[in-house]
Amino acid sequence: MEKEREGEKEWRGEREREKEEEGGEGERGLPYIRLIPKVTAVAGETLHLKCPVAGYPIEDIRWERSGRELPDDLRQKVQSDGTMVISQVEKTKDAGVYTCTARNKQGHSARRSGEVAVIVPPKLSPFTSDRTQHVGERASLTCSVTKGDIPLTMTWLKDGRPLESSRRVSISQVDPFNSILLIESLSPDHNGNYSCVARNLAAEVSRTQQLTVNVPPIIEPFSFQDGLSEGMRTRTVCGVSQGDTPLAISWLKDGGALSPHLGVNVSALDPFSSLLSISSLASTHSGDYTCVASNAAAEVRYTAKLQVKGNSSLILASLFLSFSNYPYVSPFIYLSAYVPSMSLRFRCFGTGNASMTGNPKNVKEDREGFYLCQANNGIATGIGKVVELKVNSSPYFSAPSRIITVKKGDTATLKCDVSGDKPVNVMWLRGGKMELNPASNYRVSVKQDSTPHGVSAELQIEGAEASDSGAYFCQASNMYGRDQQLVQLLVQEPPKSPNNLEAVKIGSRSIKIQWQHQSVDSSEVAKFIVEYKENDGSWEHMELSSVPLPLSTVVEDLKPATRYVFRVVAEGPAGHSAPSAEFAVKTEPQRPAGPPLSVSARPVSSTELLVTWAPPLPELRHGDVQGYNVGYRESSSSATSFNFTSVAGDGEEGGGELLLGSLGKFTRYTVVLQAFNQVGSGPLSEPATAQTMEDTPRVTSIGHACGSPSVDAVGLLRPAKASTALPSLVCHLDHMTPATPSMPPQDVRCVALTSQSIQVSWQPPPTSHCNGILQGYKLHYEPLLQDLWPGTYQPNPTSHPFLTPSELRWCSVDEVETRKTTALTAVLTGLRKFANYSTQVLAFTRMGDGVATKALYCATEEDGTHCHALDITSPLWLRGCFGFSVEELNHMPFGSGSVSPFTLSAKVFPACEDPFCSVVMGRGPLVASPFSVWLLPGPPADIKVVVSSSQSLLISWLPPADPNGIVTKYNLYTRIVDGRDELNHAKLNLASQHTSYESKGLQQHVEYQYWVTASTRIGEGQSSRVVSQVPTNRVPARVWSFGGIVVRPWRSAAALGCAAVGQPPPRRRWLHGEQPLHAQVSEAGELLLSGLQRADSGNYTCQVENAHGSDHISYDLVVQGKCPPLLRFGWDNINFWTNKARLWAKLFTEALCGVAVPPSSPVLYVTSATSSSILLHWKAGETGAAPISGFLLNYKRAQGDLEEINLPRRATSYELKVSQTLTLRSSVISFVASPNC
């Protein structure tokens, strides 16, 4: 202890001197520990781990590993400068994360952790082969690595030179740890030193054995004559008939060397023989005589027995035996006897019939007593002697070492029971060095009591602290020796708090949470307590104590769409930890469980009912109410089903209301409601009934302004208030007869509310063009989807690497839907996510429909994206099939003084990450939506896995057909299957631009399964189908690209991919239809086509083949026109551009798009005519390989200007209201796909 304090003072003194040498008194600072780099130690060597601490002065430096303070055994030591020294490093005990803690006198501290990895050097077992062998024999050397980390390399050397396999020597690598060297037939040139060398990252070791091939000696048989007695002479010769020289020949008697007192003469006759002669035999000459011949090959012996007859006597000396039973020292008996006879047999009998034979081992105290020793040689009467045996015992411990565990603050009691001869002295040591007694530590008390077999010692430490943990030694000694016993003290503290609490699976009624803890050892943590509550509720508890302790659990019986707070507490033998950091999570919603409340209906006219309601009870909503389905039917009807219409909004602000129009006059209706959220619809409400008013005569007067129905009508939620009947509005009529409106509604606007809803608003037609009382409005809308020809064309995303799947959906059209309303606004719900919609509005009177507005394009939001559209009267779309990015168009050279609408859109939407955000340019206001709908991406469209080498597989896939947003990454899952057993699971995250991955380093003949999911910023989507493959040495030709339909504009270029694998490399061939194609093919196998014409359309097939297999993919190439008329001719509609900017834009369009293939004119004909109308029909002609988006009907009144009407794309007839002679013509708007489609 004093030496350690002196060392610490010396170290601090050196630190102070260093500070003074740097310029005066050292600058004081808080403790700080620099980064501890990863350290790699070699097992069996000494590790020095420094703590790079800064700051002055540093009072104390401590180390810990896995929460346990070091040192905790005799191999570890912390030096005075804070360096941790570990001798004889062991991988299982010493590898891990070490934490260094530095403190100053003020209690400030710093901590830093570093990882220590331990690599085990190879260890070779001894060779088992004979070092010397004979010519012609087989020899083998087995080199075995008994321990050591892989990877290992094993090589053989002969006389220091590398040894390779040959016809005479073979080397076999049995497995990574065993190598065998085999020699079929030994010859003299096989003599030498053979070495096995094993290497790994830790060390290189070798073991050498010398191999000698020699001929061993052969001794000719010899013997002594019979009937020899005392006084006679005898001789015999030992001759070696075969064996390598030099030879050494010697003699033994009874296994020992010949004594000079025996009078035996030995002489060499020649190098191969030796003569043994005795001139006068005596009884002492009786025995076994052995001739020993040896050379470099072997040592051989031949023994002959010599027996001399005569009288003999036996004398046995008495000996007092005393033994000391020291540890690890075996006592032995000293016998002194003169035995002149040929053989001696003796037995020793102790008291109580105990017996001992030969040298007794490990003598115990119970062996003390008197022993009778008898000897007999068969010639004379046997003799005996009594021997007394005493055993003295050194101290020893009968009980094994043990671990004492106490809680922090309790009294630790360490005991040891010592056996052995008294007096016994006991001393307690800390760490094997520092003696513990009350004088050195006031918290320590020592006690020692005598027992029948020794003493019992006890050490007590009051107020145990964590620093008291460690190794304590009970050392006992007496006059015969000493021994010590290890007692390990572990002071337990309350466990640390769990951390990294997170939710891994969220349901509507349950949540699976998981956490981490530095230790799940039962000695430190006995159980975990999960606590959770609602926002302002009380804590509920769940205890987890199964073995092994779980680090996750599922909390059930929760409420849907409710926010819960979780925390976890660890409990161990020493008490509870502090709670973990609280974690809040909200359960998933469910369908509403309660109906809307206070449902009522009242009439406002002869054809209209006003329905009002209140939202469901909060605890039954199970999520955010997104809207309501309002159902109605005639009460007298036998039908049980209702006609439903949807209304957006939650109805919180005073409830909701809906004006039902177009009802039967003076008819009773039954009305029901149900709330819906993102999961689905709830139960129906109690029905409410109301009857429409009687019909009243309409007053027709000239001069009133043409108005519109109530603005607040369909789908809008507002505070409940009294409603008035819709006023009768009158317009100027020609000849006082009702007619249809002659102009479309004005100031049409649309804005995306969510990913599945759009709000469209407008103003009535001008008063002078209403031509009657407006009955309401019709809103026509249709999505522009991916099928250019509905039902026939499904684009392959692989053919469009520059288009997202969402953009592919904007390349065509679907069926037109119509919504009637009496309001000036309508909310379209249940739309496709992230899709472009065309909307048109017309007003209608009792006489029929009026003129529809020009198509206004508006896109639903990306799923979960708050990027809203800018709405104008004359729209120009920048995304969809056109393929321009905002960044590209922002650099267009617009005329001086003009404003770039693209720059405007970038300013309006700075938070939108997608450069293709749905933006419509113009001069209208920005309308933002508070609603948002979230949906995960669909599964990848397809997936393949092929063998790319003997130890690797190549996986490729297509993007999801319904990404419902921008894909941010792909998740590749791997599963290894052995029969029915699943051996391993793995997950790999890949960037969104990657649609293939090569998995390397795989095992052959093992089945690997793969599947892929896509992730957006909302989360991970559905899984693709599971594909499997087994790596083999044979790599057949396989194509990992995907075929499909490719649409390219006229005069553009196309590159058809055909990426393939195979060993040997496959042969590739392209076919157009059934004919071989000789065209430009890139090194990667891509077919390059340029200047496409309509004749280039058709089927293209890529075939690959090698010796192990073949494969193919096919493409269907469609060549069409390039740019839509909106893009080609729409520049003139942008009034605020300069002439220079407009001209440049046209040139830019022509350069990018080329010349489109226009559709042919339709065939127009008149089917009927009256005095006031003409019914027209037409047939469409050639479409130009692109879908028709609409028709333009041009007509001219006599002596009037040319007028134009936009008609829907699926229209085939139109009734034109006229009163004068007309000139008619019709043309087609062909919506040609852009270069991206």
Q: What is the total tally of β strands?
A: 89
Please identify the structural class as seen in this structure: mainly beta
Radius of gyration: 51 Å
Anisotropy-based shape: elongated
Biggest sheet: strand arrangement: 2-10-9-5-6
Low-confidence blocks of residues = 1-5, 17-27, 311-346, 350-361, 696-738, 786-814, 865-933, 1122-1156, 1227-1237
> Could you estimate the helical fraction of the residues in percent?
under 10%
Organism: Dryococelus australis
InterPro entries: FN3_dom (IPR003961), FN3_sf (IPR036116), Ig-like_dom (IPR007110), Ig-like_dom_sf (IPR036179), Ig-like_fold (IPR013783), Ig_I-set (IPR013098), Ig_sub (IPR003599), Ig_sub2 (IPR003598)
Keywords: Disulfide bond, Repeat
Protein name: Down syndrome cell adhesion molecule-like protein Dscam2
